[in-house]
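Sequence in, structure out.
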Amino acid sequence: MSKDIIFMQCGHTANATTKNDDGNEIPCCVLCCSRNDLASKTVVTPPDITGRKARCSYCYLTVNSDFDLAFFECRPDHEFDCYYCGCRGWD
C-alpha cells in the first residue's frame, strides 16, 4: 500500500477532504459522506487484501485488489472488492 493512501472505515480509500470543527482539513470519502459518519474516520491498520480481486462497479473488469485503484472499496464480506476503472470517463 502506498504511504500516501489513507484507508477509511467505510471501506474506501480516502478520495476527498473535509473540514473538521476546528477548521482543519481531514481525509474523507466523498462516496459515503452523506450516508454515514464512517466516511471521515480513518483506519490505522488496513485489512490484508493479498490475493483478493477487485471488480469495476460498471463494466466488471476484474484486477488484483490494490489500495491505489480509483475509488477502491475493500469488501471482505463479498467475493470481490470494487473500484472504478475509468470505463465511463473521468468527468
